[in-house]
């Protein structure tokens, strides 16, 4: 009988990193049956990734609600997953990363005594509240999981120094597998080029993403003011910022950045468009974990607008710099990359520590050896 492998995810970043693994397991249909359960902790952005990669969906909790809290997400996911696990009876549950969906997926599987594999295991910032609630989610999953698929040697070390259950395997990160798959599809896409025809090819394009809840309030306003000053003092620079739907992001961004002709505030973009924008950019300012991992493969320096990051491998490798939310630091480091060609080249040419695009196959072969 084929082994049932259930992938549980609910946000766009999870879907991106799960997609190449689901596709890889689909190629192993002589011994396994990959199944996909969505919590839809996010909805629209999640669906875009599902469509882009052509993923099957076998269960959908569709639990996104206006103004949902962590309490709602946790309770709704656990209750919904109880029925999914009863109906599907999987032999293995795979969760990814550090979302509330990942935590509840692991916990629900534990309650049913189903083995759990944790994709992108072992990341740590060292701060309980940053990123919030992700830092604690990943620690809790680490206590539950039977197999820990760690993306880097540092992640392996983080896990080995903790009292965890199960086996740790160094795999790389599936985000690189997904990026390379996506880049082949979009780099020459004429429709995407037309969609972003407002970008002036004669100017350096800075891509910005920012949405972390720990920066809401004064820190986020400080970020916006630094971005405005950066564009105002560099006439050869333009900025593209896909603005997150959260009102705590949109209000300060549109108030402080909405009236400059070289700052393009656009609606959130789908995954293909994000790859296209990263590929077209000169420099990226972000608080996103996924972007910190993806951009180095494209040769794009990354300034991380967070006080701490759990992706310290990129900092150590020189592909990213941690600049926090202090306007003086953001401006200083961005100016250096805009005007110092040696500093730019050092970051752009640094080797990506997160993988080479073979992570999914490594994991499939490991799981096959355990289950088949």
From TrEMBL:
GO terms for molecular function: UDP-N-acetylglucosamine 2-epimerase activity. Transmembrane segments: none annotated. The keyword Isomerase applies. The keyword S-adenosyl-L-methionine does not apply. Its EC number is 5.1.3.14. Residues 28-367 form the UDP-N-acetylglucosamine 2-epimerase domain. Keywords: Isomerase. Pfam families: Epimerase_2. Belongs to the UDP-N-acetylglucosamine 2-epimerase family. This is UDP-N-acetylglucosamine 2-epimerase (non-hydrolyzing). It comes from Phnomibacter ginsenosidimutans.
